[in-house]
Amino acid sequence: MANSLFAAALLLASVLGAPAPAPQAPQVTTPASFGPDSQVSASVQPSTTGYRVEADVNGYNSATYHGPYTGTPTTVGAAQAPTTLAASIPAQPPNPTATYYNTKGVPLNPMPAPFTPAGGLGTNGTLPRYMVNSDFDFESIALGLYQEWIELDLFHDGLARFTDEEFTAAGLGDEARSLIEFMANQETGHATLLTNMLGERAPKQCVYNYPYTTPREWVDFMQRLTRFGESGVWGFINHLDSRE
After folding, report:
1. Which of 51-60, 82-91, 218-227 ranks highest by mean pLDDT?
2. Could you report the per-residue pLDDT of 141-176, keeping only the tens digit for each?
3. 3-13 in b/e burial notation, b at 16+ Cβ within 10 A?
4. Of 102, 101, 119, 121, residue with least CA distance to 110
5. Contact residues for 107 (Cβ-Cβ < 8 A; gap 6+)
6. Which of 1, 79, 128, 195 can pair with 202 through a Cys bridge, CB separation 3.0 to 4.6 Å?
7. What is the pTM of this model?
8. Which range among 2-6, 95-99, 120-124, 194-198 shows the weakest confidence by mean pLDDT?
């Protein structure tokens, strides 16, 4: 009995005294792209369009130069059509086809399929066409793409411009910066989608001159820019010919 207890004690001591196995480093696989349908590589590619990209020591990406704008901005837009029909669009009465009024509270027209009310856009079974269908569509989506391009650059720029110490002093820790980087990276998908909708004549990314000098000014500027960008999209989205 004594020998058994002694052997058990030795076994327990050997288990408790055994060093813990060394932790294994996680295996990280870097993707080659943002998905099978993306035209954008997941890694920084050399630019041939004049928009130079560099990797900061913290791993974030930004343009190497954000100089002043040297062009001539316009208030009426630089794009010109072959001809302009009138100085403005006159006010008109309601659309002649906008006469539907339901006085019974139930479907008034035959249903094309069970539980499918008549009407609606893109509900007749035709395959959606995820491209622009008019000049209005093209100019509107191009404006949206310009917004996505500046967001893609802006969100990354502050992460590369300011040091870890500056972010910490501003109350922005690792978690906040990681979330901003996540939002920055997803702008790639937005820019890719709108570029594919427009085709080969889609606008390219610009070089920007930002006014902020501190992390908090950067965050404030991002919020303001995103708000008016989203407001602009809400303004044109219901007027698109391609709304499917």
Report:
1. 218-227
2. 999 999 999 999 999 999 988 989 999 999 998 888
3. eeeeeeeeeee
4. 119
5. 117, 118
6. 195
7. 0.66
8. 2-6
Distance of CA 151 to the CA centre of its chain: 7
Q: In the structure encoding, which two tokens stand for residue 173, read together?
A: 């820790």
End-to-end Cα separation, the chain, in angstroms: 83
CA distance 47 to 206: 13
Check: CB of residue 169 under 8 Å from CB of residue 119: no
Q: CB of 176 within 8 A of CB of 81?
A: no
Give the model confidence (pLDDT) of 95-110 as tens digits: 877 888 999 999 999 9
Q: Tell me which residue of 140, 149, 147, 235 sits closest to 197, measured CA to CA.
A: 140
| Size (the chain), residues | 244
Q: CA-to-CA distance for 59 and 62, rounded, in angstroms?
A: 10
Give residue 25's pLDDT: 55
**Which amino acid would we find at residue 24?**
Q
Q: In angstroms, rounded to a whole number, what is the distance separating the alpha carbons of residues 153 and 143?
A: 16
| C-alpha–C-alpha distance, residues 242 and 118, integer Å | 20
- Cα 123 to Cα 119: distance, rounded to the nearest angstrom: 7
Mean per-residue pLDDT, 196-217: 88
DSSP annotation of 54 reads E
Which amino acid, residue 56? Answer: D
Q: For residue 202, give both structure tokens.
A: 């889609």
